[in-house]
Specification:
There is one protein chain. The protein has helices spanning 14-19, 24-31, 44-47, 68-72, 91-96, 105-124, 127-133, 163-172, 193-199, 219-222, 242-251, 294-308, and strands spanning 4-7, 33-34, 56-59, 79-82, 100-103, 154-159, 177-182, 202-205, 230-233, 256-259, 279-281. By secondary structure, the chain is of the alpha/beta class. The strands form two sheets. A six-stranded parallel beta sheet has the order 7-6-8-9-10-11, sandwiched between helices. It has a five-stranded parallel beta sheet with strand order 2-1-3-4-5. Helix 11 links the parallel strand 9 (230-233) and strand 10. Helix 6 (105-124) crosses helix 8 (163-172).
């Protein structure tokens, strides 16, 4: 008999259709006995009595945050296969009830790392400041448009040692760069944050989304950066003291900040982040988008197949992994 499965999502089937596209939703239906409707927090009571034999949940962004009591009302449930990244918003009650939680966090790390590598290489060449200078017809002809140091033997600091930082480091290996990875916990660091900002031409933030990381990157760090250096943030906006960043970027027009995340997101309409020329914003596009999202569904489906065969899982989440990737 096929495993009893259902899609759970709070956004009707919009997110499911988006992530489980390109035949992935149909594949789940083919390899499981799939419940015909998507279950959300709002219709849980309507469906729960029909889900007494439900064994696995498939989901993605918008996974309902069920309570332990609600989970107890799904007596046959064994596992959740989540085709997205961070699971902090829903996983703990499942883990406390000894349910397996699988996340496609490694799949989501790939496009973020690719995005960072692109920004790192361009930053080494001084691309972002150069393109601003080239808007001035006086700077291009006379050769005063900014040029970076170049890629060869420059130092890049990756702040945080989770899956995204390690994938970024792997993708940078073909290039002649000195890449240093700074663990998120101070007691594990051989290089301090201060030293990383002082010695690195590019600093890329990948700190985990923990309360002890709020505002940890501040003016003291930015002021240490070498001439022409770049700060990249694809981690979380709250990890950066944004007022400090604005202040130092105004003081140091030679620096560049590339922010794919902010706090809040997007910035408020009157935020100074919009007005500082050497701060460039993007709308949280580093993670999986459009065609990239189906890779997350593939990871979830692959681990489901391993689970059915009682094989070791590649992407299982544990309690101590939460808020560390």
């Amino acid at each position: 008999m096929k495993t009893k499965a259902a899609f759970f999502n709070n956004d009707s089937s919009k997110n499911i259709d988006y992530v489980y596209a390109g035949g992935r939703r149909e594949k789940v239906a083919a390899i499981t006995d799939l419940y015909p409707e998507s279950v959300s927090i709002s219709n849980f009571e309507q469906h729960v009595d029909k889900l007494q034999d439900l064994e696995v949940i498939f989901s993605t962004w918008g996974m309902p945050a069920l309570s332990e009591q609600q989970i107890d009302r799904l007596p046959a449930l064994k596992a959740v296969f989540y085709a997205a990244g961070a699971t902090d918003g829903f996983a703990r009650p499942f883990l406390k009830r000894n349910k397996i939680v699988v996340s496609a966090w490694l799949a989501n790390a790939i496009p973020v790392a690719e995005f960072c590598v692109g920004q790192i290489l361009l930053s080494c060449k001084g691309y972002f400041r150069n393109t601003m200078d080239c808007r001035d017809p006086r700077k291009w002809p006379d050769g005063t448009a900014f040029r970076g140091r170049g890629v060869f033997e420059e130092t890049v600091a990756l702040i945080g040692a989770g899956s995204i930082a390690m994938k970024t480091k792997e993708l940078l290996e073909p290039f002649s760069l000195n890449v240093i990875v700074i663990p998120s916990r101070a007691e594990k660091r051989t290089v301090s944050l201060e030293e990383a900002f002082r010695t690195s031409y590019i600093v890329s933030n990948h700190l985990p989304n923990r309360h002890d990381n709020i505002g940890v990157i501040n003016a003291a760090h930015f002021r240490l950066m070498p001439y022409g250096a770049t700060f990249i943030n694809t981690g979380r906006g709250a990890q950066v003291n944004e007022q400090d960043l604005v202040t130092v970027m105004r003081e140091r027009p030679d620096l560049t900040a590339l922010l794919d995340v902010t706090n809040p997101e997007p910035p408020l309409p009157d935020s100074e982040l919009y007005t500082v020329p050497n701060i460039q914003l993007s709308s949280h596009i580093a993670g999986s988008i459009n065609n990239e999202v189906v890779r997350m569904a593939d990871y979830a489906i692959e681990d489901f197949i391993r689970w059915e065969k009682d094989e070791p899982l590649k992407y299982q989440i544990s309690e101590n992994m939460l808020m560390t990737s």
